[in-house]
Design brief:
Length: about 300
Amino acid sequence: MIRAAPDASHLPVLLEEAMSFLCPRDSGQYCDATVGVGGHARAIIERSAPHGRVIGIDRDAEVLKLADQNLASYGDRVRLVHARFSQIRAVLEQASALPLDGCIADLGVSSVQLDQPERGFSFRRSGPLDMRMDRSQGETAADLLQRVDEEELARVLHDLGEERFARKIARAVTHARESGGLTSTGSLASLVARSVPGRESNRDPATRVFQALRIAVNDELGELDRFLQDAPGCLRPGGRLVVIAFHSLEDRMVKRRLRALAAGDAAAPAAPRFQILTKHVITASASEVACNPRARSAKLRAAERLPS
Ligand SMILES: C[S@@+](CC[C@H](N)C(=O)[O-])C[C@H]1O[C@@H](n2cnc3c(N)ncnc32)[C@H](O)[C@@H]1O
């Protein structure tokens, strides 16, 4: 059960910047592919009043309930769908919401998810090693740690967490699971702390490990890849795509895909063409980071579909 009052604790990242690229307008049709508790969606719906509409997608049914409460006053201008954003085309087709005037994806997990120890995303408060955004299906982080061999775990920690001590940690995890397993975030965090020499001044040593496991458990890169393939084709000419990434691998994927869309596909000349709107990546101002430390690593990129 999620208990937190969402609006007090959750500040949408790069809100003004995202809206300046999305340009919501009256009667427009928008998709928030990661609706979370509805911060960006609320801004879209308010700025596209009185007739603009938003379809909000989230794979986390518990978070979606909060979005439903937070956005209830906008009535049928908002529709919420429990789905993965890799399914964007099917979701929009089923809702008769194509084509879109704009689509935003604010990747990763929300503070609401991080703040719930029972969801297993946080190393600061102990809970079960779950980390699934959709708790109705799939493998938990504990299952993953039980299944993979040392080499594969080291690769996950290195590739997805950029963890320098991936091998050491993978070895320690393998030993720990032989003697009883790792089932809580607290036990994993202390095992990581014991396995790495010293600590970076401003980071808990478990940060990268938890990030890597979360990305693996939720197949976040696979999801993003499919989203970046399908979302552009859901926009009408003039429609805009805005993506906020928090991880260098994700940001690289967004940058490459937008460049490819801008360059056009020689093998598919009829494919939609885009213009990149963010020549340089957009990051949060010092004052935003001071109010919302999560904004520190946010990177926003945007593009507009050109007329065919
Ligand atoms: C950073 S939060 C979004 C916060 C939102 N912009 C707001 O203002 O409240 C990211 C959300 O995306 C959801 N999410 C992450 N990956 C997803 C995916 N592949 N499909 C659908 N939702 C996803 C998470 O469950 C989480 O609620």
